[in-house]
Amino acid sequence: MCGIIGYLGDKNAKTVLIEGLRALEYRGYDSAGLAVFDRAGEVFIRKTEGKVKDLERYSASLSAEYSSGIAHTRWATHGEATGINAHPHTSSDGRVILIHNGIIENYMPLKKKLESEGARFQSETDTEVIAELISKFYESGRLIEAVASALANVQGSYGLAVMARDMPGTIVGARNGSPLVVGIGDSCLSIASDRNALPACARRIFYLDDGELVHLGAEGYRTISLANVETTKEVEDFHREIQHSDRAGYPHYMLKEIFEQPGTIADCYRGRILPQEGLARLGGLDPLDERLHDFRRIIITACGTSWHAALVGEYLIEELAGIAVEVEYASEFRYRNPIIDAHTLVLVISQSGETADTLAALREAKMRGAAVAGIVNATGSTIAREAGCGIYVHAGLEKSVASTKAFTSQVIALFLFALRLARMTKLSSDQGIRYLAELVSLPRKIENILNRAEEIRAIAGVFRGKSNCLYLGRGIQFPVALEGALKLKEVSYIHAEGYPAAEMKHGPIALIEPDMPVVVVASRCGVYEKVISNIEEIRARRGMVIAITTEGNEGIRRHVDHVFYIPEIDEALSPILTVIPLQLLAYYIAVAKGHDPDMPRNLAKSVTVE
Ligand code: M6R
Question: Residue 51 Cα, ligand 1 centroid: separation in angstroms?
Fold first, then answer.
């Protein structure tokens, strides 16, 4: 999604901004641009379709020292991915220069009105309208006031960084719904949509809240509300996360992150389990401690891969703790009329902690008086802060757009939560001890799977020339089937559907034709024999079956074309093992087709618009 970076300081702004854009690249974008002021106060704007490296090439002629500027990666919403639609946008009088993440919902009537007053627009974007509107209110030296006045007319979501041609040492930021973080250093001030993009000089940070504006200038920073009332900010020390941002010898981040999973899942449970007592300790949930006994119903809400983790969580919590769980798409939850009472807990899952729909669902739940908790990867993200309590999954920075290690860590967090609840109700300490013994065996078992990645690469070869496939699973493996299909769609652009295996005969079976690949997650479980019957239904129609099953299950070879074995594990934890071959499968298929799995077309890492 769109990335924002702004900088004032003693380093060359152009270099700092390009570095910031590189740190934002993983979020997914289709064009990029920058505006930089030289030491004499002259502004230079460059923007182009394509990648940051294209922008760098295109702006190579900007060889002076630049003291300030703003830069942007654009993920198209209104208007195609072209150089003209790329940000920064300027007002038609050239006085205001601006970058934006979000969607201005009333931009059409605003545009018409401004045109009738003489404005001339260059692009098809909603963003250009805000630049024009700010210029209308702008009196030299009073940029923040002009931005506040303009935003009073705007409906929609925004994270903005604005500069004025006659105020080269000033950046104004404004936030409503799209994240913005301010970085403070000894000789620099910066603003970004993601704290990982802040320059190295940023030692302290604060987050802008919705409806808040910030003025950055030679005199430091000040923040106000849209109603022009001064606000105070909690400034925190910024210890940059160890980024592991290079690919560490792997050809792609996606593969690197798949291979990190033995470590990342251990990072999620480390320090949180008492193996001798069969207990899980989750300090982040302490604020809910006294209420945990009272919850009769849990709603889990999320999007995409996080929603699939939520579905696994439903099985885990119901099975282990016997508490009713409903899983809702966050995008639907926010517009429904959800029934929430004092005995309902709403769990919100998000890797990025910035997904607009999930954030809106969290706010809706809080507004209705629900107890809420977040299961989040990105520390300090909006969802983590607004949830107030929850579980960090500690998967580390996930750069690949296709989420892999965050999913398995989310499942571990849900497992720990289910165990915590279960031990308060129906699970004995012996059972808890057995579950934890299984849990700590996972890293070794994941390594066993990763060591056999070549087997999956070989299976990937059978997808050559295929444009459709099915993923089937039953029970706790159904969400794994959904996740396998999503991964394949995201990075290889092959159409894939995930179904509960038994549902196939109610419709999708019509799709099966000779040699169509059908991936079946058939680990040993209560309904294993029924899964075999489903496989036979596919074989009867000459579909090609690829099975993921448990070690020792030699008998399955009679029924399938290809098989990959996972180590034995308790069914509750099996999704962690069954999903990994599916992640690898999607990766190898994408690479074989010549796609870059780290930059899938049309996708953004963090979807900060509705
Ligand atoms: O950051 P979140 O977990 O809130 O993101 C939710 C989805 O946008 C995300 O999982 C998406 O589906 C990924 N591209 C999956 O690989």
Answer: 22
Our answer on whether the CB atom of 303 is closer than 6 Å to any ligand 1 atom is yes
Domain count, the chain: 3
Residue 213 lies in a domain: yes
- pLDDT digit string, tens, across residues 398-449: 999 999 999 999 999 999 999 999 999 889 999 999 999 999 999 999 999 9
**Residue to substitute in 178, 352, 399 for testing ligand 1 pocket (most ligand atoms within 8 angstroms of CB):** 352
Structural domain harbouring 230? 3-237
CATH of the domain at 21: 3.60.20.10
Residue 425 lies inside a defined structural domain of this protein: yes
Domain assignment present for residue 445? The answer is no
Residue type, 253: Y
Q: Does 376 sit in the ligand 1 pocket, CB within 6 Å?
A: no
Q: Which long-range contacts (CB under 8 A, 24 or more apart) does 381-384 make?
A: 381/179, 381/350, 381/352, 381/353, 381/354, 382/179, 382/207, 382/353, 382/354, 383/348, 383/350, 383/353, 383/354, 383/355, 383/358, 383/359, 384/353
Same domain, yes or no, for 83 and 21?
yes
Please determine, for residue 77, whether its predicted confidence score (pLDDT) is greater than 90.
Answer: no
Q: Are residues 424 and 470 in the same domain?
A: no
Q: Tell me the whole-structure pTM to 2 decimals.
A: 0.85
Q: Which two tokens stand for residue 42?
A: 């002259």
